[in-house]
Amino acid sequence: MGKPIGSRVAARSGVGFLMLVLLLAPAALAKDATPRVLLLFSHDRLLPANAELEEGFREGIGRHRDEVEIFAEFLDVVRFPERSHAESMTRYLRERYAGQPPDVVVAIGPQSIGFLAGHREQLFPGTPGVIAGFTNRDLIAAEPITEVAGRPMVWTIEPILDEIPKCRSDIRRLHLIAGAAPFDQQRLQDALKVCEATDSGLAVTTSVGEELSSLHDAVARLPRNTLVVYLSYFLTPGGATTVPREVGSELAASASVPVIGLFDTYFGDGITGVCAASFRDEGIAAADLVSRILAGEAPDSIGILPPAEPRFVFDARQLKRWNWDPDVLPAGSIVRHRTPGLWEQHRGAVLGSLAVLLVQSSLIGGLVVTKRRQTRMAQALRRSEARFAGIFAGSPSAVAIVRQSDGRTVEVNPAWESTTGIPRADSIGRTPLELGFVIEGDSEQRFTEFLKSGKPLRNYEQAFRAPDHRMLTLSLATELVELHGEPCYVVMAEDVTGVREATEARRQLSRASRLAQLGEMTAAISHEVNQPLAAILSNTEAAEMLMAQDAPPIDEVRQILSDIRRDDLRASEVIQRVRALVTRKETHFEPIAIGDLLRHSVELIAHEVKRRGVAVEFDIVPGLPPVTGDRGQLEQAFLNLIFNAMEAMAETPVARRQITVSAVVESADRLRITVGDRGTGIDDGNLGKIFDSFFSTKEGGMGLGLALVHSIAELHGGRIGAENNASGGADFHLTLPLQRS
Known about the structure:
Helix content: 40-55%
Oligomer: single chain
Number of helices: 27
Strand order of the largest sheet: 7-6-8-9-10-11-12
Distance between the termini: 67 Å
Shape: globular
């Protein structure tokens, strides 16, 4: 950030030494305080690009500084493009950060950059800035902004026009797709300009701002010689906002031809490939710039850095779908989701074969007693080692050989280099600790104890710090064998980082749903807690009046104290139930009486049920066998179904608002819970989508409740389904396995 503010003021004023000391003292104290960074996003928080960029920023900032306070705000300009919204955001940010202004502001996206340029002096005068998520064209068109550093991104179809015709000579047409938002329109205009300036020989057609239903029909009828380039779709012509990643996934499923996207967040859900820079990498780059500014560099001296070049990333599953040869792709392309090879499918068998080969070689060497046998042994050993070397080098799984005596690596195969990112030359002669494997506690001692033990590892998960500073999770398996007469560990590694991140994401989704549910239950919780508290207060006042008498009636006072104790326990029970609902904890399976759980759940929200004028009727068969599950998660799933049913009856006359909860044994090993309502029912076109994440028919709905129920049902080995009932509403069926005897 350059010189502290106090230093600049003192230099300009030219006052004496005492004044300089007084002004520098607060600045010195501020320098030791935890730096604050504000991330200002153009769009809403659920946009995948925002999540990727913020995750990269947090990872990047952690490489440079131990402590940084990071705040995030979202302008959401697609849904709120009015000028009045910008003014209200200005007032909001000014008031929120008046007491703790940020040390650096990071504007992400062209709209956010324009907002910062127009309102900086009102919000954070003199605060340095970093800009990200923009193109050079965006910067030229924006209002001038100073005291910022940044790195632009490249969103262009030029590489597609240059490279794809070389790979697929049968493609003759290019079909561009964009939504109705200003951002969508700008991406389309940029693409058309590139098409005009490039002599690709491809005919260009467009679908601009079309309704999604007609757009699906259009892409399903495209000629086979067409390639779809999906730009972005933030807004429908009717004004409804969308998530571009989800729109792209749906279009790819409907399309009769391959679909290429311009943003890396589109990858993985049906898109054939993308040609884009990584939003995660842009977040890391922005974090590096912020760290340089916090270290004292002026933003203007850093300036605008050269952009990262886009790269092609293809989905092997989609290449197979479209008969696209994975060996005929643009140079430098990355292909993901390849079919697992022999090693991934039969790792135990391959490991056993490797061990047998090594042990066999050692045994043969011990049997050599004559020169003739020694000669034959040498020949057999060479053949065996050649076979082992072929298996070792050609294995698709990462394999390393580590010497037991000193723990140093003696050999690695190409897959090891690819998985860890460490070249073979850098691995040889170094221990796993020196290569970046992180062992908690006393690392040296624990590693030494493992070497001496000679025990094998199976599916042991270990943190690993890659050369690019990413933290990976590797699943390790080891076997101690004799190699060239010396004990060595054969170490196999598999990257399971993505699996662990997906598990953590599901936990976060579950907790977010519980917190949203808690907001709706606030009134019920308040009512349940206030009742015992009011009773405690009333009984306390009565006891005080009785004790003021000359001869207090001790028996009555004792009865009042008993009532106070009962009401206190009742209030404590309510609080414990609320804590159990919102506390993040590991899944714990136990036998559960489903009838008690259903009634207990409705009791928890009894006040909310009464407030909405809803009657709940139970039809639970007595003596139901228990199910095995996590009590908190099953209670949460059932509460989601109850709230969903009450929402569905918002327009139903009060006299007809009834929810029926039934539970029966469906088969010898399964129990079925049904939650039925008398609401508006479910459109036939939505029956197949209501359990998808972020799909909601309610205005302002997040689309998480039923998706979480689906996730909890799968986790418990059950199923969730829905159908319309005869009363005009809908029935939701949750089927769970019974406890095994």
